[in-house]
Amino acid sequence: MQKIGYLGPPGTFSHTAALQYAGAHGYLPVCCSDLETVFRGVENGSLAHGIVPVENSTGGSVGEALDLLSTAGGIFITGEMLLQVRQHLLVRPGTAAGEISRLYSHPQALAQCRRFIRENLAGVPVSETASTAAAALAVAGSPAPQAAVGSSSAAEAYGLEILHADIQDSADNVTRFLVLGRHQPSLRGPAKTSLVFAVEDRPGALYRILREFALRGINLTRIESRPAGGKLGDYIFFVDCMGARDDPAVDSAIGAVERSALWLKVLGSYPACWEERAEAGDQRTAAGRLQSVRKKIDLVDHEIVHLLALRQSLVEEVAKCKTSIEEIVDRRREEEIMARVRALATEHDLDLRVVQQIFALILQGSVCRQKKLVASKG
C-alpha cells in the first residue's frame, strides 16, 4: 500500500486531513515529526505522497511549508484539500464542565474559540501547548479534571470525550492542505497551477508580472510574498491561478513571467477543490469561445487606455521641467523611442508599419500636450 506522510502527532488536524485523503485514495497514513520530514520522504521515495497545511482562513499561511515548497527538488503539488476546522472541548470521560480546573490547547486554537472560553470557562487557567494533540495528551495523562480544545481525531486518539462540540467562533474556519508527489497527475476537470518567482527590486516589477495573467483573463486565487532569506526587503512571490499548465493561456502567461522574473519555479498543476464559476458563454461551442476571447481583448483594450493615461501624466511631469516652447521637441529622444519600439515590435512579430504609425501619433500628441502646458505657464 502506498504511504502518505503527514505532520504529527496523531490527533492534529493534519492527521485528520491525512485520514480523509488516505481513505478516499487507498493510502496508508504515516506520522512524521516535522514538515521537512514529509518533504524529504517524498523526495527520496520512502513516501509516495505527503499532505501539508499551507494556509488557514483565519490564521494565515504556514510559512515553513511555503519555504520548503520553494526549495524542494523533484516533487510537485499533485492535489489540494480543504478541511473545515471544527474545534471541540475535550475531557476525560465523566468530567463535568463545572469541574474543569485547567484548559490546554495550541494558541491558534484558543484564539479561534475565544468567545466560547470567555462565556463558559471564565476564570479557568489556560496553558498553551505545541499542538492540539499535545493538549489532548496532557488532559488524558492527568488525574485532575482538565480540558483541551482540539479535534475529534484527538479525542479518539487519546481516549477523551467531546463535552461541547463546534466551539469555534467562526463556522467558516478552513485549512487548505497540499498533496505532494513526484509525478504530475493527469488533469480532466477544473485545475489550478501554483508557481513561485522572484522579481527585481524596481518600480513596477511585480505589476508587470501580474498583468500577464490579467491580460489573458486568468483568475489568480492567491498571491503571497515571503522573505527571500537574503537582505531585508528581498521577497519571493507565490501565486496560484486557475487553469492547468498545458492550457495555452496559462502556459503563455508563465512564459511571459519567466522572461521578466529573476527566476521562476512551477510548483505543479493539480485538480482544484472547487469549480470556477462559469464564465458567460459555453467554452465548448464556437460562439462561447469567441465571447471568451472578446472579453480578453476588452481587458487588453482597458490596459492600453490605462497605460496611455499614465504616459500622459508623465508627459505632463516632463512639461513642468521645461520653460519655453523651443525646449519641447527633442528629436534625439524621439528617435531613441522609435528605435526601441521597432525592436520590441520585431521581437513580438507585430506589424512594424502599424506600430510605428501608432507611436508617431502618440509622440505627436505628447508634443501638443507639452506645448499647451508650457504656454499656459507663460
Q: What report would you give on this structure?
A:
With 378 residues, this protein is an alpha/beta fold. Among the domains are: 88-164, Periplasmic binding protein-like II (D-Maltodextrin-Binding Protein, domain 2, 3-Layer(aba) Sandwich), CATH 3.40.190; 189-277, Alpha-Beta Plaits (2-Layer Sandwich), CATH 3.30.70.260; 286-377, Chorismate mutase (Chorismate Mutase Domain, subunit A), CATH 1.20.59.10. Helices cover 43% and strands 23% of the residues. It contains twelve helices and 15 strands. Strands 1, 2, 3, 4, 5 and 11 form a six-stranded mixed β-sheet that branches. The longest helix is centred in the C-terminal third of the chain and has 35 residues, at 286-320. The model is unreliable at 275-282 (pLDDT under 50).
- Residue stretches low in confidence (pLDDT < 50, at least 5 long) are 275-282
Average residue pLDDT: 87
The CATH architecture classification of the domain at 286-377 is Up-down Bundle
In the CATH hierarchy, the third-tier topology of the domain at 286-377 is known as Chorismate Mutase Domain, subunit A
Distance between the termini: 84 Å
- Count of DSSP H/I helices: 12
